TrEMBL record:
InterPro entries: ABC3_permease_C (IPR003838), FtsX (IPR004513), FtsX_ECD (IPR040690), FtsX_firmicutes-type (IPR058204). Part of the ABC transporter FtsEX involved in asymmetric cellular division facilitating the initiation of sporulation. It is a multi-pass membrane protein. Keywords: Cell cycle, Cell division, Cell membrane, Membrane, Transmembrane, Transmembrane helix. Belongs to the ABC-4 integral membrane protein family. FtsX subfamily. Coiled coil: none annotated. This is Cell division protein FtsX. Gene3D superfamilies: 3.30.70.3040. Residues 182-291 form the ABC3 transporter permease C-terminal domain. It comes from Candidatus Fimiplasma intestinipullorum. The lineage of its organism: Bacteria, Bacillati, Bacillota, Clostridia, Eubacteriales. The chain crosses the membrane at residues 31-54, 179-200, 221-250, 274-298. Residues 66-159 form the FtsX extracellular domain.
Length: 304
């Protein structure tokens, strides 16, 4: 076994040359395998980019959704502190941030621009607002549940989280994300079988070549390695076009949309380093499938 391993290492450059010659010599079948890899990786790339961006959008929306709790103006500091403690103990609450009445009034003034200056005279003891809390939920789906619990607390004047439209948006994005994840997993599995079968047909057509090599005393690994390298090369060559489409296509989409989808709440992932990372994934996926497909296809012609 050790001798066979050293022999494989010593003959590795020769195996690479053999793999390249086999791809060239079996041009039609090699092109067929490369084409299958290319088409499949393009589909996986498109679905993958969509799924990843939807996931980012969902997480971005969920992180920006908060519950604003306004206390009654007459609430004492002890009542505010008690409410703060109660809010922290609620299930599915990630964080609670306190905002005093002066800060709330300043937010109102700043938010209204020049028109907000009329409220400047109410600063101090004349401030009509109460203290407030900004609550972040562990997940957007819990917003409505948390809000309904807070509404029943004493000295709470108003609870605002966006209502049903907010929960519907979060629910819709999560549904699309889950469907996309299932779809891309299923598509990847199908792609594995498609590419592996195409490579299998390529190698099966060369069963005579494998038999001759066995007859002259070539070891199993000496026969197998060139085919495995051939599968890796076919996968890598087949990933070139999908990677180019990903690089130029995603950059064009990002620049055309200014990195946004509909609104600034739904942001596309920055092209860099995303296109390089996803491109590397496609190359690794293509070469891995080529390697596995070749290994499994040659296996049935060899004795163990």
């Amino acid at each position: 076994m050790i001798r066979e391993i050293f022999s494989c290492i010593r003959n590795f450059p020769r195996h690479i040359g053999t793999a390249l010659k086999n791809i060239w010599r079996n041009g039609v079948m090699s092109i067929s395998s490369i084409f299958a890899v290319t088409i499949t990786l393009i589909i996986i790339g498109v679905i993958g980019v969509i799924a990843i961006n939807i996931q980012d959008m969902t997480m971005n929306v969920e992180s920006s959704l908060t519950i604003h709790v306004q206390m009654e103006r007459e609430a004492t500091q002890e009542e505010v502190d008690a409410t703060y403690a109660a809010l922290q103990n609620l299930e599915h609450v990630a964080s609670v941030t306190y905002s005093d009445k002066e800060s709330e009034l300043q937010k109102l003034i700043d938010g209204m621009g020049e028109d907000g200056e009329i409220f400047a005279e109410y600063q101090g003891e004349d401030n009509p607002l109460g203290d407030a809390f900004i609550i972040e939920a562990e997940d957007g789906q819990y917003l409505e549940t948390i809000a309904s619990q807070i509404e029943n607390m004493e000295r709470v004047n108003r609870v605002n989280y966006g209502g049903e439209s907010t929960t519907s948006l979060v629910s819709g994005l999560e549904t699309v994300r889950n469907i996309g994840s299932v779809f891309i997993i299923g598509l990847t599995v199908i792609a594995l079988f498609m590419i592996a079968n195409t490579i299998k047909i390529t190698i099966t057509s060369r069963s005579t070549e494998i038999s001759i090599m066995r007859m002259v005393g070539a070891s199993n690994w000496y026969i197998r390695i060139p085919f495995m390298l051939e599968g890796i090369m076919i996968g890598l060559i087949g990933s070139i076009v999908p990677i180019l489409i990903l690089y130029y296509g995603y950059n064009a989409l990002y620049n055309a949309s200014d990195g946004m989808f509909i609104s600034n709440m739904l942001l596309l992932r920055d092209p860099y380093p995303f296109v390089f990372q996803f491109g590397a994934f496609l190359a690794i996926l293509g070469s891995s499938v080529g390697l596995v497909g070749s290994f499994m296809s040659v296996r049935k012609f060899l004795k163990f």
